[in-house]
Amino acid sequence: MSVLVLALAAGAVTGLALGALGGGGSVLTVPALIYLLGFTPSAATTASLVIVTVTSATALSAHARQGSVRWRAGALFAAAGLVPAALGGALSGRLPPAVLTGAFSLIAGLAAVRMLRPAADGPGAAPAGAGRIAGTGAGLGAVTGVLGVGGGFLAVPALVNVVGLRMRAAVGTSLLVITANSFAALLARAGTARSLDWAVVAPFAGAAVLGAWDGKRLAARVSGGTLQRIFAWALLAVAGLMLLDVAL
Questions:
Q1: 154 contacts: CB under 8 Å, gap ≥ 6
Q2: What's the whole-model pTM score?
Q3: Where are the domains of the chain?
Q4: DSSP the chain
Q5: 195 three-class SS
């Protein structure tokens, strides 16, 4: 199978997961780039930031039209993560491949476990203090910068439990946070980004954007809980294989 076909197929599956599930779908991007398309861990996390930025910005515009983005809260939360995201992006290229792969597999496992837990759709918690909000936003930015993941599976519960948003607003607002953090991390990796294989990255990103729209339609037809459980178990398997790869 040609690299172009693999890139289109992987992008479509990633976009489908993002559109159907929201937060957490982008964690498929890095393993797909490494194990299907032959990217190094460092190049994969950089390419992932490109793909996550494009797909999240596209999804953000759709949620904004639906009125589910809380711009002020999202901007404040994202602002705390911009510098850590940029620093994490600069640090990532200096880390050994095994460290990046191992850390990513742990984050992927965490995402899977988080998805297996039922999410409440009631009112968010009372907003925390500014210090805690800033600390949480900074931590999310650092994860995005180092590992090249959007971190929606972390951003959504943080916006509910720390900022106090309702679930629907948290999902829409998380896309603002993810877009801002991913772009900041990408700027810190500008030199690495120029050397990416754009003949692979561009089709992957385009297919992911288109797949996200199909994912939204799929979510309307199939139980969200069923989709989330299937994806979570598949993600746990991917995380386990990546850890095994590091160990060997």
A1: 23, 114, 140, 143
A2: 0.81
A3: 3-247
A4: --HHHHHHHHHHHHHHHHHHH-TTGGGGHHHHHHHTT---HHHHHHHHHHHHHHHHHHHHHHHHHTT---HHHHHHHHHHHHHHHHHHHHHHTTS-HHHHHHHHHHHHHHHHHHHHSPPP-SPPPPP--HHHHHHHHHHHHHHHHHH----HHHHHHHIIIII---HHHHHHHHHHHHHHHHHHHHHHTHHHHHTS-HHHHHHHHHHHHHHHHHHHHHHHHS-HHHHHHHHHHHHHHHHHHHHHHHH-
A5: coil
Sign of CA dihedral 22, 64, 130, 146: positive
Q: 70: which 2 tokens?
A: 């809380």
CA distance 28 to 208: 11
Phi, psi of 70 (to 5 degrees): -100, 95
Give tens-digit pLDDT for 70-127.
998 889 889 999 999 899 888 887 888 888 888 888 888 887 787 777 655 555 556 6
- Nearest to 146, CA basis, from 81, 80, 87: 87
Residue closest to 205 by CA, chosen among 51, 39, 19: 51
Cβ–Cβ under 8 Å, residues 44 and 33: yes
